[in-house]
Each structure stands twice: as C-alpha cells, then as structure tokens.
Amino acid sequence: MSTGEFATVVAEKKRYTYDDYCSWDDDKRWELIDGVPYAMSAPTIRHQEISMNLSREFSIFLRGKKCKVFASPIDVRLNAEKGDDTVVQPDLIIVCDSSKLEDNKACKGAPDLVVEILSPSTASIDLVIKLNKYQEAGVKEYWIVDPESNTVQVFTLEGSNYIVHAYGLEDEAVDIIPVGISEGFEVNLREVF
Fold first, then answer.
1. Which of 2, 8, 18, 150 is a plausible cystine mate for 84, CB 3.0–4.6 Å?
2. How confident is the model at residue 13 (pLDDT cuts 50, 70, 90)?
3. 174 C-beta neighbours (distance < 10 Å), count
4. What is the pLDDT of residues 61-111, one digit of tens each?
5. How far is CA 69 from CA 12, 49, 107, 122, 136, in A?
C-alpha cells in the first residue's frame, strides 16, 4: 500500500481484511486494526535492545515447555474467526496453544502474553487502541514497556477486564515481574533495561 493509497483509504473510510493485508507488496510494515491500516516505523536501537533482552529472558524460562515466544514481525490475527480485520505485530508474544500457529503464517487468535515497547510514533495506539483490542480478544497478559522511564505496566485479564500493575527501576518500585502464564516465571527488570 502506498502513501497515496493510504490517503484514499482514510478519505473513503474503506475497511480492509487480512486477505487484503496479505496482498500488499510494498516494503513498509503495516498493522490493521478494525480494517484501518496503520504504518509502522522502524524501531530504535534502545527499543531493539529491550526487545532482545526480554526475548532472552522469556526463551530461557520457556525452553522445553509448551509455550513459545516469538519476536516481531509476526502477524497476530486477533479476530480471525469473525471479520479478520485486525492484524497486529506486537514486539513479543507468547503462545501456549500450538493450534493457534498451525498455518505457520500467523497467530490465529489471542496470544497468552503480548509485549509492546513504546515509541513516540505509536504510543497512543499501544496505550489505548491496542489495549482495548487485546482485552476484547482475551489476551491474558499485556505488557507496555516504556524505555524512557524504565517502567513496565502489566495488564492482567481478570474476567473480561484488565487489572494493571506497575513495575520499574526507581527506588521504591518493584523490579521483579511475575509472569502469570506460568508458575515460577519471573522477569528481573535489571536484566531488561
């Protein structure tokens, strides 16, 4: 999809699906939320460093277990069974149900855990739009990592709503995050930031 095509989409309020998304052949990365395309920017070096550190912590703990960690870019089709108009590429996901990965192209349905690392260009999408989409889709844990403040907000699904807990490296902050998808799984933020 080119910039001109994107402007036309916005003007015409056209909605796209996963099939449309798969046909786009340009070099840009896109996400599709409720049928609306959003261009993704390249991550900073700090962003990549945090992503790799978290990925390592997750991978070490999950080695030999049924849950698997995946780093962006991986398509997550949040509503594949109805509408199929939301495709996101979180920074990291953990999937414990292997049937969601059977087509070997995307995660079909909600991952168990999603991590988004904030960047200035996408922060409002991560903090509002994606938060609501992940909650609606049934993502059990949603982590919002802020590289500027060295903090993580963990949204844990209880019933159909998220409960939020904050973690960080400040003097009074808790810097060990319990990962709710597996007993005994913790992440030390000093290994992340």
1. 18
2. low
3. 14
4. 999 999 999 999 999 999 998 989 999 999 999 999 999 999 999 999 999
5. 38, 16, 11, 22, 22
Residue 100, both tokens: 């969601």
* Residue from 59, 57, 47 nearest 90 by CA: 47
DSSP-based three-state secondary structure for 45: helix
**In the sheet that 161-168 helps form, which strands lie side by side, from edge to edge?**
68-71, 92-95, 113-117, 141-146, 151-158, 161-168
153-166 tens-digit pLDDT: 999 999 999 999 99
Q: HSE of 61 in the Cβ direction (CA atoms, 13 Å)?
A: 19
Domain extents in the chain: 42-191
